[in-house]
Every structure is written in C-alpha cells, then in structure tokens.
Amino acid sequence: MESILGLLEEPLILLFAILFVGSAIGEIKIRGLSLGTSGVLLAAMLFGHFGYKVSLVIQQLGLGMFIVAVGLSAGPRFFRMMKTSGMVFGIIGLSITVIAAVTTIIVSKLFHLSPALSIGIMTGALTSTPGLAAALEATGDPLASVGYGIAYPFGVLAVVLFVQLLPRILKVDLAGDLKKKSGPVRNDQSPEVMTIEVIDPSINKRTLKELQFNQYNSVVISRVIRGDRNIIALNDTVILVGDRLVAVGLTDDLKKLCKKIGREVETNTENHDNVTLRKVTVDALELIGKTIKELQLRRTYGVTVTRIERGGFEFNQNPKWRLERGDVLTLVSSQDRLNDVEKLFSRKKLTVTNIHILSLSLILLLGVLVGMIPIHLPGLGTITFGVAGGPLFLALIIGHFGKLGPIHARYYQPSNQVIRDIGLVLFLAGAGTTAGQGIVEVIQQEGFSLLIGGAIITIVPMIAGYLLARKWLGLSVIHSLGAICGGMTSTPGLGAANQLMDTEDPSIAYAAAYPFALISVAIASQVLVFFL
Predict the structure, then answer these.
(1) Spatial separation of the C-alpha atoms in residues 388 and 427, rounded to whole Å
(2) Quick one: what percent of the chain has pLDDT higher than 70?
(3) Which of 56, 66, 67, 387 can pair with 423 through a Cys bridge, CB separation 3.0 to 4.6 Å?
(4) What are the residues whose beta carbons fall under 8 Å from the beta carbon of 107, sequence distance 6 or more?
C-alpha cells in the first residue's frame, strides 16, 4: 500500500490516476444521468483532501486549451446571433445569468458565505465550467472549486426535472401550444423566392456577370425561364427581354431589383429540363472553413447556393461565409450536377486530426497576453481578463472570422471537442486537488447552507427565465424550455427537452441562448468579486 501511495508522488502518475478514477466516476449513470467530466473534479478533490496536488502549470495549460476551444466553437454563432431573431433567446440567456448573479449576492449575504465560495456555487448551479475558470482567476481562491463541486450535481438534476415536470404540472398540449405561440423566426428576414419578368431593354443580351445583380446584396439568380425552357443561371448566361428570372433573396432587395428590371410574375414551381432544388449537408473535412466563393460551385459545377441553414436558423447565402460541419445548403441545378456536388460535400477522408498547432499556440499566446492587460472600471477598481478571459475573448473574435492572418480557426473545428475535453480534464484535475485540501473544513463550517444556497441559485433563475420567455416574450413552452437549458448551459436538460416532442425547436432555442450564457457567466464571475 505504501509503495502505491509513493507512486502517486510522481506528477504524471498522480495526474493519470486522477483522470482514470474521475472518468470512471463520470461514466456511472443513475436513471440516465451522469457527472461526465465533472467526475474528474470530484476525484481530484478526493486526492487533494489527502494532500496530493497537480502542478499549477498543468491546470493553466488545461484552462487555456479548454477556453480557446469554447471560444472558437461559440464565435461563429455569438456575433451572428446579434443580427438575427436569435437575439431573443440571447436575451433569455443573459437574463438568467444576471438573475443568478443577483441571487448569488443575496444568498452570499444571507448565509455569510465568502466571495469565492459564493461565486463557485453560482457556476456550479449554472453548470458552467468556463464560469468556474473565471471565478478561480478572479478570486485566486480554491474555495470556488468547492462551491462548484457541491452545487453542480443539483444544478444538473434540477434542470432535467424542471424540463420534464413543468409541462405535466401545467398540463400543456405542447404541439398545440407550439402552433399558437410565436417561435424562433429562422432569420429576421427569411429568404424569399420571386420570379421577375425582364422588361428593361438595357438588359437585353447581357450576361449575369455583366449585370452584377450582386449589388442588391442578398439576391441570387438561380434559374432563367425562357419560354418552356428552364436554364441554370451561370455567370455567362445571357439574359433576354421577356426572360423570367427566378431570384432568391431578402424581400427588400428583391423588390428593388424587380422595380429596376421588370415586373413580378407568378413563380413557376415546375422543374423543367431537370432543374431542381436539393438540400445538402456539409460533412467533408476538407471543405470545413472554406467560403462559398472559394469553392466556386457555380463556375466549376454549374450549381447555385441560394440558402444556408445553420443551428436551425436559415440565412440567405453569403459568398464570404465559412462553412461549418452540419451546415445545410440549398442548391439549384440539374440532377446530375447536384449528384456530383453532393458527393463533394459528403466525401470523407481518413483524417486522424486536423489541428493547426501554429494557430492553437498563437491564439493561446496572444490570449494570455491580452488577459494580462489591466482594465480600469470607475468605482470598482482594476481588473484583467486573466488566463480565462483573454483567450476566450480572442478566440471568440477569431472564431467569428474563421481566419485571421496566419491563424486558421475553423480548419480544426472538428477537433475542437478533443481540445476542449483534454483541456477541461487537465484544468479540473488541478483545480480539484487544490480545492480538496480544504473541502472537509468548509462543509463542516457551512454545511446545510451550501446546499440551500446552491438550490436557490439554480431554481430562481430557471423560474424567472421561464416567466420572461413565456409571459414577456410570448414564446411557446417548448421554446422557453430550450432557451432555459441554453441559459443554464445544461446539455442534459436539452436532452430531456428533446424527448418531450419530435421537433428540433428546443435545440434551436438552446443553440441561440447558449453562447450568450456561456460568455456572460464568465464575465459575471469576475465582476461579482467587486460586489461580494
């Protein structure tokens, strides 16, 4: 026994022992629920209680990797959601965080808890590991991990039970309610289809490339109907007076184009000459991160992209958008050409990983440097983003653009999960051993108040978020529940919501609320230090 305990003095053996025990705990399922990677935190706290400690360098490395992966994943949606109706769900996510923060201040004063312990309880109640990372960075106190570890299990269970029980208690017909209440509009202005008959003689015998209809921003000409012929619209397609152009775009842009070149006529929905629409899902690794313009689908394959669906939201195509795995493109062309392009998008190569080490290391380096910049807040003092906030801020921006100088963010998007999981367990192993050194004393001193405080900080934001979504924003129950799961950053809760109905609506609401909650919890964890 002593020889085994002696081996744990070796840093690598200790680290892998914690990861093994923690992963085993995390895979234990009770009624379909498991702790997942948080099992590593519990195991690390146990080892820490007996005096073992993982190196701070390991913890900081894991934190940096985890935060960068989170930022790169959230970046493409975070800024784009601000321009769409997804902002409605973003408001819910932000509101849940604000309400949780206010509740945390009240609970802290009521039960006389320390700032680090209070903030840790909040991040556990919201099941937010980035929040915990920010809390540890801001407070410099391992008690934040103790609070997180105590509140986390109830935070997971409470959201799942809330989602499952609320519709039964309210006796709501979810399908009927979904039809009555407003839900997520796929885009603030969903793409429309308009058929325009060409009347303007100045357009006669000119190609689409010469006409430069892209000056109307969102408009894409997908087909040209000439008599009984249905012609695929390519750059060198010649337009004649009397042609009917099938245009896809936003309503205002379509009206401007129609006013300039002709008049609107009834849309011909028949697929003459084998011209058809098809939805294709992006799956090929070599296409992820590339723009529609770079693929040159129109020139190479004679295929036009008219719309893009991402995360349940539909957008008009933009040549500069970089593709992500799971994007659904609406394409127009002949059957054989669509078959070729579908093979292109679904083609898979045996790739072990496509992590761009130069990009990853540069983001981490610049992120840490940004995190060291002092920021003065009038009346509150000076703060820094730290190892958590700096890389997160930088990764959000780079994730949004996809490519910035030598940094290629989206090209290793499929490997984000690997980076995130490895970084997360390394961070939890370090944070857990530090927290474990004082966990018994904290529980003995605070005891029941920790559990009650965690329950309050979990339940109050959920109820308030539901009332906000349902009563003020007028959302359906199923959309409200999905948004609450996103606001509480609860993936198990989303799983429970998806089981209520055979629809993607909970996932849409979750995807729109989650990035806002993710970022706001990390910010709140740092700002709360000044109020506690």
Answers:
(1) 11
(2) 75
(3) 66
(4) 113, 118, 121, 453, 456, 457
The answer to whether the CB of 52 falls within 8 A of the CB of 14 is yes
| Residue 210 belongs to a domain | yes
pTM for the whole structure:
0.58
- Quickly tell me which residue has 């296409």 as its tokens: 287
Helices (H), 247-296: 251-261, 292-295
Provide the 3-class DSSP secondary structure of residue 527.
helix
Paired strand residues for 182: 475
Residue 315 · residue 250 · CB < 8 Å: no
pLDDT at 460 over 60: yes
Distance (Å, whole) CA 128 – CA 516: 12
User: Is 497 domain-assigned?
Assistant: no
Decide: residue 453, CB within 10 A, 0-12 exposed, 13-18 middle, 19+ buried.
buried
d(Cα 470, Cα 98) in Å, to the nearest integer? 18
- Determine, yes or no, domain membership for 338: yes
Mean pLDDT lowest for which of 220-229, 244-253, 402-411, 419-428? 402-411
- For 438-458, the pLDDT digits (tens) are 666 666 666 677 788 888 999
Q: Is 299 exposed, middle or buried (0-12, 13-18, 19+ CB in 10 A)?
A: exposed
374 exposed, middle or buried (CB, 10 Å; 0-12, 13-18, 19+)? exposed
Question: Number of structural domains, the chain?
Answer: 1
Q: Could you tell me which residues come within 8 angstroms of residue 436 by beta carbon, excluding any fewer than 6 positions away?
A: 44, 45, 46, 47, 48, 49, 50
Kindly give the interhelix angle for 386-401 and 357-371, rounded to the nearest 10 degrees.
Answer: 130
Compute the distance between CA of residue 95 and CA of residue 460 in angstroms, rounded to an integer: 12
Residue 509 CB contacts under 8 Å (≥ 6 apart), including other chains? 89, 184, 475, 478, 479, 480, 481, 482, 483, 485, 486
Reported as a single tens digit per residue, the pLDDT across 287-304 is: 776 777 787 777 777 777
Residues 6+ apart with CB under 8 A from 39: 22, 23, 24, 25, 26, 27, 28
Is residue 149 within 8 A of residue 116, CB to CB? The reply is no
Q: Position 257: which residue type?
A: L
Q: Two tokens at 265?
A: 């006529």
| DSSP three-state, residue 129 | helix
Q: Is 322 helix (H, G, I), strand (E, B) or coil?
A: strand
Helix (H) or strand (E) holding 313: strand 313-316
pLDDT digits (tens, 9 = 90+) for 175-190: 777 777 654 444 444 5
Which CATH number do you get for residue 305? 3.30.70.1450
Question: Which amino acid would we find at residue 496?
Answer: A
Instruction: Please identify which residue in the block is written with the tokens 């619209």.
Output: 233
Tell me, yes or no, whether 429 lies in a domain.
no
Amino acid at 486: G
| Mean pLDDT, rounded, for 317-330 | 74
8 A C-beta contact, residue 69 and residue 368: no
